[in-house]
Design goal:
alpha+beta; two-stranded parallel ribbon; 1 helix; about 20% helix
């Protein structure tokens, strides 16, 4: 049996955010919220200098 997932590290460009977009899609937002509600810590993994301004604080 696998241990429960406790952390999800999500890349931004081309994964969480569609190419050339600064908004998280409603589908991705629902998935992130569902993971958080299930007790999973969601974090952003990026090479960007700041993850702010992409609407991530409002998810």
């Amino acid at each position: 049996m696998h241990p429960p997932v406790r952390l999800a590290a999500i890349d931004m460009d081309g994964t969480l955010l569609p190419t050339l977009s600064t908004r998280v899609s409603p589908r991705n937002a629902r998935a992130l919220k569902g993971a958080q509600q299930a007790g999973v810590t969601v974090t952003i993994a990026t090479e960007r200098r700041a993850a702010e301004g992409c609407g991530l604080n409002s998810i």
